[in-house]
Amino acid sequence: MGRVLGVDLGSRRIGLAVSDPGGAVATPRGVLARSGDPAADHRTIVAEAREAGADRIVVGLPLSLSGEAGPAARAVLEEVEAIRAEAGEGMRVETHDERLTTVTAEQQLREAGVPPRRRRAVVDEVAAAVMLQAYLDGQAPAP
Fold it and tell me: What is the CATH number of the domain that holds 128?
């Protein structure tokens, strides 16, 4: 597996994370402010993936705690289709369950002593990294 771009689609911000070249470790990459133009946001996501040298984009899917796809998940699935169309044939676009990733990211930042104001600025990219790491761990071959 090559590099993978992880994406946490929020209503105001888009968190990004990227894996190492071997697809083993996820690192926060940054946060994009929503532009108000979904097509422009999708182009930016694909451009970020290409710039990172990723051959795959994994978008967090906000399923309910019971595992059902509610309105938020359906909205993300619509965006995933648009990102897939923008990316074209050479790049895979997948989804991965992102339940509780923001909660986990908040907890990690709090435990690391990151002040509340700074946490708000980085929580989306850390949540993207948490989701991407879970995806990567699920892709790893069994020992």
Answer: 3.30.420.140
